[in-house]
Write a structure and sequence with these properties.
This protein is α+β, with helices and mostly antiparallel strands. It is 42% helix and 13% strand. The strands form six sheets. Strands 11-14-8-2-19-18 form a six-stranded antiparallel beta sheet. Helix 4 packs antiparallel against helix 5 and helix 19 crosses helix 20. It is elongated and about 130 Å long.
Amino acid sequence: MNSPSSSPDSPAAADPAASPTAADPAAAPAEAGPAAASGKSAKEALLGKVSPDRLSVSAQRIWLLTALVGVMLWAALASLPSGTTSSGGSNVAVQAALLCAVLAMFGLRSVPLRWIVRGLALVSGLLLARFGELGPLDGLQGSWHALLWLVALAASLVLAPSSRTIPGVDAATVLRPGQFSGADSATAAAIHSGSKPVTPRGQVPAALIVAAASLILAGALLLGPRVSNVFPVGPSAGELINQGDNRADNALVARDSLDMTTRPRLTEQIVMSVRSPITAFWRAETFDKWDGSTWTRAEARSGRLVEGGRVVASPEDLAAKDGESTVQQFRLEVGFVTAVPSAASAVQVDTAEEIAQRSDGTLWSPGAPLGKGTTYSVTSRQIATDAAALRSTPSAAQAARSGDSVAAAVLAQFAQPPTTTARVRQLAESVTASSESDFERVQALEGWMDANTEYSLEAPLAPKGTDVVDDFLFVSQEGWCEQIASSLVVMARAVGVPARLATGFAPGEWDATTGRFVVRERDAHAWAEVWFPSTGWVAFDPTADVPLAGTQEATPGANARDWREVTGGLLLALGVVVLAAGPVGRWVRRQAERARTTRRRRAAVRRRWDAAAEARIERIGTSAGYPRGSGETLTAYGGALAVVIEDDRLAQVGQILDRQKYQAPPSAAASAEMGTASDGINPETQQELEFVGQVLASHETKPG
């Protein structure tokens, strides 16, 4: 029969008491046997290079952790800028994420699971935060990648084993399951670790899972989108274009003309999101030539490529020269875009594609269309103004007469008598007859249209061959933004006010959670732009609440609470309550126990004469300047107090109280008044009680 040291696989080796190595580590070199001859210790022969925390979890749990890590990696990889189609890019991201997760979780067996989970969480989180394109996707403002990542992170951190999972097991190596016949790996691990058999980790407390999930989801809903704003999104070309979006009613397709006899397509589809410090119209195109039914440009083919991102402003665009600069970041969500919206007046554009500009400063893509996911930034300038300033500004005609060459050029191009009917001209002249400035004339025209026409998306189209403005003002008196803005421009020109038509989008819906404007297809808009010698082009439109020159801060609805903030707040409260329930409960129990102890002590003082006497002697000593020390017996305290107060009786009192304190309680309690006997107290105790009461009373009644 082999000895325990000669055969590492023998049953005797499973008994720590029979193993000299387990009993005496110093004896290990001498007992190594064949393992030492082969260059490996008995420990290395028995133990595999496997992280110890893998023994604490089941194979199903490891696979679940692998899936969660894969989801984290996919959420990060899928959010990166891609030049491929969404399906192709998604497939590549899924394959790469799963491959990395499986290799890390099953290939790095010597690395603790918790290190792998935390390391991959850090890497994927950095990728997502720094390089991810967080735009409006599926109504979640692009935060769904971050949301999914945070959920997977919460679940993986809760399920991953901790450093305290297997106490006492060697941190470097552990036994593999099934390595011993007739003994499980936990028992085998105890052989060389000198510890108790490994106990698998228990189930994760449900309260911890609920709290972690609640807090992570609350952070995603409340902070995730805001955190993404810390990292500016650089320009990207987006995905491949979608020819199906090249429709006549696509407001993001650049046109040489605008037909006023067709109805726009207005749906809830998100077309772009804008991160902007101001509320403004997102201008795509302008038109200055009207023939009664269609808008075109006097300089249809004019323009140049934008070199170095610098947009060259036209002479009359005064804001581009003297305005205060702001930066807007755009993300496109449609698959075919050739018009490049921006806040007026654009002076710099940062894009990944070649961009051209027209003479009016509007931007467009002269080559390949821009696809979904395209991001770009525009620096624009605005001159802050208000109604009072514009009212006091000289008209363009007055400025031209005073020698302003720019004003003269503007009048020649934008204030010539328009193509319209006589009654439209007469209406404009009669409405503005009492106005003294261009601003007052525009206000008067807006006021008349507000009182006599209605905004309606269901308004009938003007018949072919008729003047659209005339039909809107005198026949249907119903129309949408294009008819309203066109009528304002035509009537303004009829009274000598320089104006043009601009198209693009209204600001959209402000999302306080992400700090972005969400612009939908229904936000496609047309408005009038009027030129003033002091500020240049200023937007006017009675159908949209947009400030003059777009100088208002982007805070509409910032105090509103959408479903994300409400849900996030509730989840945050739930997580805090669940986490705090344990500590708060323990604190409440401690306080309750402390209160019960205090009540018991006070009751004892009321019930036992010796406890009351102990409290009295302590008060006497404190009044004499000699408080009782911590742990000091009453015998010692009474003796010391007898010296301080010069009354030897106090030493005897201390002895009596100590004896009474540590003997069995009396059969009946004394009365509250010291010196009054109670039934059940023997005469000797009664004499001591009376003696103690007399001594203490003598010192309590002494003055000073």
